[in-house]
Amino acid sequence: MASRVTKISVVSKLNQLADVVCSCIAASEQLQTTAFIVQEVAKDHLKDSKADILLIDPDMLAEFLPQVPKECKWVQSTWAGVELVMNRLNQDQRVPSWTFTRYAGPFGPLMTQYVLTQVLARERFVVRYHEDQAAKRWRPGGLPAHRYRSLADLTLCILGVGEIGRVVASTLLGLGSSVRGVVRSIPHDGVKGLCYFTTDDMAEAMHHSDYIINLMPSTPLTRGIINRDLLTRAHCAEATFINAGRGDIVENDSDWCDFLDQGLLKHAILDVFRTEPLPEASPLWTHPSVTITPHVAATSFPEDVAGAFVRNLERYATDPSTVTPQVSFPDMY
């Protein structure tokens, strides 16, 4: 690899990502003996870039998949979610010759902060006290209506305990919460103190949970997995559902309104949706038991993406097969 120049094409809406990548490469001691050309490329000029390595937003990759250069050996996504690319590959019925890695980045800590923000805001009546301040109304916390629960009083169920979910679970456990985790198969090196359930027992895991937190990726197995039948069997009418994973765990965005109106859930905090941006006509905007955030639970920033990419590039320079985390084309994640 050291005998030739390796071409890296950057195709992204992230501001100045190519420049940040160049700075990270220059700062890497491991890459000083390797020659790279880093070029920012317009998405519709992918094919002409003749890139060996591609750093790209997955929505652009999905749109221009046939344009990936034949020279390309490795594609690194700038997002954690890769379902747009997987869906396109499935639609085209093709398996690429290049290795595909998704961006892991600092999503574990960021997602943990989002979850804690939402849980504590509800348990500590942040919105209510904001309204009280606007009304110049003093209501001490000792009143029965304002008696709050600490994190140690709560049972939380995490759907999807992968790289991100492990960090969220470990933090909540460290703060004294009772935490359950739903996974496809029970791991041998699981999070200490976490009560594991398989997806077959998801209803049991959700049963009487105070918060249900979805962190699952979008796969054929998870699409539409949250439905009326599951919630009825789970008996989680007092639960707040936090969806920070993927919007297609329900068949339709409006299903959340139905779940709430039918008393299957108490509240829904939604960061992701099947249709984004969420249309103005959506009933979710005005539902009294819905909290909406615009897909901001864990955001990709240029310096984080570049850092993760260059760390992978160091692995690639030594052994291309060691880049991580690699996407499994058969599993579509």
Note the topology:
Blueprint: E1 6-11, H1 17-27, E2 36-40, E3 53-56, H2 58-63, E4 74-77, H3 83-92, E5 99-101, H4 107-123, H5 126-134, E6 155-159, H6 163-174, E7 178-183, E8 195-198, H7 202-206, E9 211-214, H8 228-234, E10 240-243, H9 255-261, E11 267-270, E12 290-292, H10 302-318
Parallel strand pairs: 1-2, 1-3, 3-4, 4-5, 6-7, 6-9, 7-8, 9-10, 10-11, 11-12
Name the features.
12 strands, 10 helices, Rossmann fold, NAD(P)-bd_dom_sf, 7-stranded parallel β-sheet, oxidoreductase activity, single chain, NAD binding, NAD, D-isomer_DH_NAD-bd, 5-stranded parallel β-sheet, 2 domains, 333 residues, elongated, alpha/beta
What features would you describe in this structure?
Pfam families: 2-Hacid_dh_C (PF02826). With 333 residues, this protein is α/β, with parallel strands linked by helices. It has two domains: 6-103 and 300-322, Rossmann fold; 107-292, NAD(P)-binding Rossmann-like Domain (Rossmann fold), CATH 3.40.50.720. The protein is built from ten helices and twelve strands. It has a seven-stranded parallel β-sheet, with helices on both faces. Strands 2-1-3-4-5 form a five-stranded parallel β-sheet. Strand 6 (155-159), helix 6 (163-174) and strand 7 form a beta-alpha-beta unit. The two termini are 29 Å apart. The relative contact order is 0.14. The model has no long low-confidence stretch (mean pLDDT 95).
Separation of the first and last Cα atoms:
29 Å
Indicate the CATH topology of the largest domain: Rossmann fold
Number of helices: 10
Kindly state the mean pLDDT as a whole number?
95
Instruction: Bin the strand percentage.
Output: 15-25%
Q: Characterize the quaternary organization of these chains.
A: single chain
Strand arrangement within the widest β-sheet reads 8-7-6-9-10-11-12
Largest sheet: 7 strands, parallel
Q: Which stretches are low in confidence, meaning pLDDT under 50 for 5 or more residues running?
A: none
Q: Which bin fits the share of residues in helices?
A: 25-40%
According to CATH, the homologous superfamily of the largest domain is: NAD(P)-binding Rossmann-like Domain
Number of domains: 2
Tally the beta strands: 12
The arrangement of helices and strands along the chain is EHEEHEHEHHEHEEHEHEHEEH
Bulk shape:
elongated
The CATH C-level name of the largest domain is Alpha Beta
In the CATH hierarchy, what is the architecture of the largest domain at level 2? Answer: 3-Layer(aba) Sandwich
